[in-house]
Amino acid sequence: MMNQQELEIAEHLVDLALKEDVSTGDLTTDNLIPAEIKRIAYWTAKADGIVAGLEIAEMTFRKLDPSLKWDVLASDGTRVKKGDLIVRFEASYRALLTGERTALNFVQRLSGIASMSGIYANAVKDFKTEILDTRKTLPGFRLLDKYAVKTGGSSNHRVGLYDMVMIKDNHIDIAGGITPAVQQIRAKVASTIKIEVETTDLKQVQEALDAGADIIMLDNMDNETMRQAVELIDGKAKVEASGNMTIERIRGVAETGVDFISIGALTHSVQALDISQRIEA
Asked: So which residues are the catalytic ones?
């Protein structure tokens, strides 16, 4: 289930989406369908995947018809097969038609993310390595995209710029090196804030380790270099692998012993899960 903050963001986005799509009214439906007619509708998976975002769909239809009856058959996190029923619901015929595209847009996107998350998580299930998302999310959808990642079985990296330090190449350049960058940050942020440093070679790995980084990112390194970096770090910091992390490659990366693999494609290259709505006559 979504937490309170996620639900609040979802409601804001649903309101925006309905304003965008419906605005002053559904000219087709409102002028063809009597307001008092109710119908039952079903959602069916048209492809295999993991469901996510059904609370948002319910929220969408309920805004259009507060008397909505909503019966979930495959809750968030459920793996569905093509042809499986996901939800059965009853509302005014107008609400079913007017809310269909908005509700499906939310759920198809989030289910696509959850499905991809599940594929990557399953690929490294035999290792200690966790799959992480990134900040490469649809603007405004950050919490929802990350909710879908969790629903699919992977983990969340930092939510934004405010909850964790990430020292990257440009920061290192302006600070004059990894060591002064870490020292300046340590002097200014709470001790509970984790500091991660991006590195591109073993020399930088050693400097980040000596500087006391909590997490060391191995950026665009080959597997053998990553293996050497993990041995060098030897558990004194967490290790994240990043850059060109495809599904074909990640099992080999996990074998190097890294703690995390971050994958932007979980959220920036979404293939929506195909779901259809059918209304009973």
From this structure: 101, 136, 168, 198, 219
